[in-house]
């Protein structure tokens, strides 16, 4: 190949070479590894190579063999400033900020009075969206409070139970995203205390931190609790399924679990050495504090870069961080109309992959997720993998927050471009439609509370000016209000309030509402019975002989639960059958495609088959099962409510009516998160081609393919059955039992009261 | 040209003057590769965008100003005025740009498509990567060196480790000097010798600096230029060795 010529004539060479490369690349080549001779692999996590590091630190002092010929300045001066470069003088080096248009503009603006008043007003304004739900809940609460004063201890007890459940009602939002997307700073701004949770330039958060905001009327001690890992929780970190790396097709994804295991071992060994005998003692324990500050939080939450080789000054920092599993902080936020919990999670796509595993664990139990992206690199394949992982949540439960728009040169132009690009990519991928995308900056939000708005920095101020011009606000907007509005936090809260109200809020309201209604209806029915039979409390004669319905209730409960369980069991069998058929349909379709491929192309080209069909089949099988379970539950609840009405009527000798007691609403079905798990077919990378290359012969392909699908789908099916369907069965059953028992308690109590003359029936005072 | 060519070994025998080292600009999308290309070329040729660009690899070499798109089938499309818009580039799998710019007298530069772009086609990326002699990997300071980068470099880095530079860009976004040092420190520790040089730079400041030596020094431009020249020399010293070791490309 005499293609190489002297530099001056090398144009043809390159062109030919590029053509060869482009042509070669167009061949199907699913492997990520370039085809070439053996290479020595450089491993991560090996000790640094001192000669290299030294060489590079000496670059400046030791001039290289040939003078660099001032490469950059020489060429750069031939051109005027590039057209897209910002006007000169806008941003001086950050070390010494000089007068600057953005900052000057910002500081010239009127600003509301600082301190607590401003913080409070900004927060209240952002949180106003929670008011309607809070008011509805308050009405229910007032009703329950009335009933809690009822003279009958059973009625009052039921009402108190409901009040307790209302006090405990706390919708939660989980913030997830890549490492350094700015989650922690955003969360700090959202709760109105910039700097409460430690944030750093290097990855830092390693614990799921739940911030419980206690609203006005529910204030309490601002306490903290830190829970430590135990063996089980640790091994759960290594569980199979739903790994971001695979969903994102990240390089080396198939070997990640081994790496995580190694990192975990290393981490545990270090903690064991550091904590000595206390290590074993701390496992599974928790540390509770009546108050907290930043330094305390840092001891438990911060697992940062200087952690391993920290000096004496930072001994306390991160002392327990590697064994802390979760942190819970309670804070009073009078601006908030109702309770709310915000969960900050460690970032995914960190080289310290344990963080990612912890976050995946936190997603499992959550309903409402905010995916935080960095505007500088919005929606990378890892972000998309993360969204896929939660994509079996309904779209109303996923919000995308594009953070750090303050770092864009010109957000006014870039934000619409980024939005378009995200929407295009989402449309192409297998994620729910209609995910809301919000742009903002936790950095701006955090500074809106502060005295010195100029603290946002010169570049950031220029970006703010650009963005403000594109998104005009109300007349006479103060500088802090502008910063707060453009930070996106108010918009984020407005969307979250809407999602909470239509999701967790609505179903909670329905549950409590029905319980309260049944309570008052039962009381009314008893009152009616007492009135009709002319009970005379003064005479002290019982209106009815005391009736104990305990037996009836127990019998009813037993029969209802038995029948429900039997029906659900039937449904489960039907589900198993549908799953099997789905699997077989997919295998036979895919095998046919495989054999067709082998006929046409032989064995040398790698075949791939899209597993979307399999997921669709499994998803529809699951949905049928879900519908079955809902129907069975609804039916059973209705029949039970009729039976309860009948017991009540019989006991009190009132006219039999089967609609005195209303059935409780069905519990909410959990999302089929298991469908988000990765299977081998999802992996277009090295794993699949190795599978392919190992096989020889048609029979072998077809057979091992079928086996592969069998093996690969089992965890998904297990997950669907165990984690989702069975959990839901349990919820349906628990709701039924709770319903029968609480009705039984009230009925018994009222019936006893009706026979006891001293207490006027139906007294509500 | 033989279709079964092994591109990595497309090398001249020792009798023929060897080609210039090929330096690839790698990194995830929006990490600053195109801005770096513009800084190095001293011209605003490489399109810079805030989103994933889906731009094919752009191969810059020294020569009379010209710009050609190359399709999968090898056909060439002239790109007048080097106007690299998506309409012009429809179906184009690579772009070749010749310029008479100083840096290209020493090496070819290849501005590679950003990885971690959900829409990136990896085969082109891998094929291109197989012929290069040196790498400048850009990673933004604010989110420096994540698992998706570390894992990819572990797969493809291999024997490029001794002529590779990790460039932590957007240093201007980190206000505090101590923090800038800590980011470099962490990245150094995590990459553990798999790059021969690790430097920080503010590319926007380098663009603004023009010929101002003090400003170039301050933003990290000088150090990068020096390190690049060293990398080129190392690649040149190594090239004959490679060629003799792999004379199979006939």
What does this entry look like structurally?
The complex is a heterodimer of chains A (about 775) and B (about 250). In chain A, helix 4 packs across helix 18 (about 460-470), helix 6 (about 130-150) packs parallel to helix 20 (about 490-530) and helix 17 packs antiparallel against helix 19. In chain A, strands 4-3-5-2-6-1-7-8-9 form a nine-stranded mixed sheet, with helices on both faces. Chain A is globular and about 100 Å long. Chain A has two domains: about 115-505, P-loop containing nucleotide triphosphate hydrolases (Rossmann fold); about 560-750, no CATH class. Chain A is of the alpha/beta class and about 775 residues long. Chain A is built from 24 helices and nine strands. By secondary structure, chain B is an alpha/beta fold. Chain B has a single domain (about 20-245), classed as Rossmann fold, CATH 3.40.50. Helices cover about 30% and strands about 20% of the residues of chain B. Chain B contains seven helices and nine strands; from the N terminus they run E-H-E-E-E-E-E-H-E-H-E-H-E-H-H-H. Chain B has helices at about 35-40, 120-130, 145-155, 175-190, 205-210, 215-220, 220-245; strands spanning about 20-25, 60, 65-70, 75-80, 90-100, 110, 135-140, 165-170, 195-200. A nine-stranded mixed sheet of chain B has the order 4-3-5-2-6-1-7-8-9, with helices on both faces. Chain B is globular and about 50 Å long. Mean pLDDT of chain B is about 80; it is low at about 1-15 and about 240-250. The interface between A and B is large, with 121 and 140 residues.
Q: Gist?
A:
Helices cover 53% and strands 7% of the residues of chain A. Chain A is an alpha/beta fold and 765 residues long. Chain A has two domains: 116-504, Rossmann fold (3-Layer(aba) Sandwich); 558-749, no CATH class.
Low-confidence stretches of chain A: 1-11, 28-97, 307-314, 536-543, 757-765
Mean pLDDT of chain A: 78
Q: In DSSP terms, counting alpha (H) and pi (I) runs of 4 or more, how many helices of chain B?
A: 7
- Strand tally of chain A is 9
| Portion in strands of chain A | 5-15%
CATH class of chain B: Alpha Beta
Radius of gyration of chain A: 32 Å
Helical residue percent of chain A?
40-55%
Overall number of domains of chain A: 2
Strand order of the largest sheet of chain A: 4-3-5-2-6-1-7-8-9
Can you summarize the main beta sheet of chain B? 9 strands, mixed
Helix content of chain B: 25-40%
- Count the strands of chain B? 9
CATH structural fold name of the largest domain in chain A: Rossmann fold
Query: For the largest interface in this structure, which chains are involved and how many residues does each contribute?
Result: A-B, 121 and 140 residues
């Amino acid at each position: 190949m005499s293609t190489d010529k002297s530099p001056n004539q090398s144009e043809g060479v390159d062109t030919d070479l590029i053509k060869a490369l482009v042509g070669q690349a167009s061949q199907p080549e699913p492997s990520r590894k370039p085809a070439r001779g053996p290479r020595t692999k450089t491993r991560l996590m090996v000790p640094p190579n001192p000669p290299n590091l030294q060489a590079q630190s000496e670059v400046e002092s030791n001039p290289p063999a040939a003078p660099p010929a001032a490469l950059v300045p020489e060429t750069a001066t031939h051109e005027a400033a590039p057209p897209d470069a910002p006007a000169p003088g806008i941003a001086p080096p950050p070390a010494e900020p000089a007068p600057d248009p953005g900052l000057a503009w910002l500081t010239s603006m009127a600003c509301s009075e600082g301190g607590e008043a401003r913080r409070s007003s900004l927060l209240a304004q952002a949180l106003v969206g929670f008011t309607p739900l809070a008011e509805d809940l308050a009405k229910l609460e007032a009703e329950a409070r009335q009933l809690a004063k009822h003279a009958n201890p059973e009625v009052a007890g039921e009402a108190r139970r409901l009040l307790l459940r209302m006090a405990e009602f706390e919708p939660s939002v989980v913030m997830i995203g890549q490492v350094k997307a700015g989650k922690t700073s955003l969360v700090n701004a959202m709760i109105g205390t910039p700097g409460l949770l430690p944030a750093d330039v290097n990855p830092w958060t390693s614990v799921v931190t739940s911030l419980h905001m206690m609203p006005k009327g529910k204030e309490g001690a601002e306490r903290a609790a830190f829970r430590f890992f135990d063996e089980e929780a640790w091994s759960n970190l290594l569980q199979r399924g739903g790994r971001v790396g695979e969903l994102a097709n990240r390089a080396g994804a198939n070997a990640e679990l081994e790496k995580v295991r190694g990192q975990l071992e290393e981490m545990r060994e270090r903690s064991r050495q550091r904590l000595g005998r206390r290590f074993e003692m701390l496992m599974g324990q928790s540390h509770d504090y009546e108050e907290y500050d930043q330094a305390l939080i840092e001891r438990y939450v911060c697992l940062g870069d200087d952690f391993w080789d920290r000096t004496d000054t930072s001994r306390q920092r991160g002392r327990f961080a590697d064994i802390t599993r979760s942190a819970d902080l309670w804070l009073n936020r009078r601006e908030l109309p109702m309770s709310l919990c915000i969960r900050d999670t460690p970032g995914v796509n960190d080289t310290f992959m344990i963080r990612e595993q912890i976050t995946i664990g936190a997603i499992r139990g959550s309903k409402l997720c905010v995916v935080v992206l960095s505007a500088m690199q919005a929606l990378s394949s890892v972000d998309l993998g993360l969204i896929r992982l939660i994509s079996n949540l309904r779209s109303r439960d996923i919000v995308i927050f594009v953070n750090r728009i303050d770092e864009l040169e010109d957000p006014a132009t870039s934000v619409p471009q980024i939005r378009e690009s995200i929407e295009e990519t989402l449309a192409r991928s297998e994620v729910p439609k209609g995910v809301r995308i919000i742009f903002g900056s936790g950095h701006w939000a955090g500074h809106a509370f502060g005295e010195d708005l100029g603290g946002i920095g010169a570049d950031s101020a220029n970006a703010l000016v650009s963005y403000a011009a594109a998104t005009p606000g109300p007349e006479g907007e103060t500088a802090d209000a502008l910063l707060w509005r453009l930070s996106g936090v108010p918009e984020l809260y407005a969307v979250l309030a809407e999602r909470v109200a239509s999701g967790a809020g609505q179903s909670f309201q329905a549950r409590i509402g029905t319980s309260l209604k049944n309570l008052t209806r039962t009381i009314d029915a008893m009152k009616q019975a007492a009135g009709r039979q002319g009970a005379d409390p003064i005479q002290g004669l019982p209106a009815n002989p005391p009736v104990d319905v305990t037996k009836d209730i127990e019998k009813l409960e037993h029969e209802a639960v038995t029948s429900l369980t039997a029906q659900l069991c039937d449904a489960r069998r039907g589900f198993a059958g549908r799953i099997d058929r789905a699997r077989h349909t997919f295998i036979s379709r895919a095998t046919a495609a495989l054999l067709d491929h082998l006929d046409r192309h032989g064995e040398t080209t790698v075949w791939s088959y899209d597993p979307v069909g399999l997921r669709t089949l499994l998803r529809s099988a699951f949905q049928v099962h879900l519908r079955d379970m809902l129907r069975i539950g609804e039916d059973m609840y209705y029949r039970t409510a009729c039976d309860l009405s009948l017991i009540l009527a019989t006991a009190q000798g009132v006219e039999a009516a089967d609609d005195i007691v209303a059935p409780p609403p069905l519990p909410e079905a959990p999302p089929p998160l298991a469908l988000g798990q990765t299977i081998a077919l999802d992996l277009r990378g090295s794993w699949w081609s190795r599978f392919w290359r190992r096989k020889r012969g048609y029979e072998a392909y077809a057979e091992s393919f079928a086996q592969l699908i069998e093996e690969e789908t089992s965890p998904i099916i297990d997950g669907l059955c165990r984690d989702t369907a069975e959990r839901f069965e349990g919820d349906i059953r628990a709701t039924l039992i709770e319903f029968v028992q609480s009705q039984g308690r009230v009925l018994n109590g009222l019936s006893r009261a009706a026979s006891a003359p001293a207490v006027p029936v139906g007294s509500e005072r | 040209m033989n279709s079964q060519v092994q591109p990595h070994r497309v090398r001249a025998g020792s009798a023929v003057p060897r080609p210039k080292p090929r330096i690839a600009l790698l990194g995830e999308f929006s990490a600053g590769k195109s801005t770096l290309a513009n800084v190095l070329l001293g011209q605003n040729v490489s399109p810079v965008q805030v989103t994933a660009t889906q731009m094919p690899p752009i191969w810059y070499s020294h020569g009379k100003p010209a710009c050609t798109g190359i399709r999968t089938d090898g056909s060439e499309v002239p790109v007048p005025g080097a106007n690299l818009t998506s309409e012009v580039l429809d179906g184009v799998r690579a772009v070749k740009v010749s310029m008479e710019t100083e840096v290209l007298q020493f090496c070819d530069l290849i501005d590679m498509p950003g990885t971690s772009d959900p829409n990136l086609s990896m085969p082109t990326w891998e094929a291109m990567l197989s012929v290069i002699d040196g790498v400048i990997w850009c990673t933004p300071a604010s989110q420096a060196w994540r698992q998706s980068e570390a894992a990819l470099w572990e797969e493809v880095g291999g024997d490029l480790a001794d002529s590779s530079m990790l460039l932590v860009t957007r240093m201007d976004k980190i206000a505090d000097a101590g923090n800038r040092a800590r980011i470099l420190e962490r990245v150094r520790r995590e990459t553990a010798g798999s790059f021969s040089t690790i430097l920080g730079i503010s590319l926007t400041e380098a663009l603004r600096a023009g010929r101002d030596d003090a400003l170039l020094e301050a933003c990290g431009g000088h150090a990068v230029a020096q390190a690049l020249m060293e990398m080129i020399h190392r690649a040149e010293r190594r090239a004959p060795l490679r060629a003799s070791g792999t004379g199979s490309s006939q």
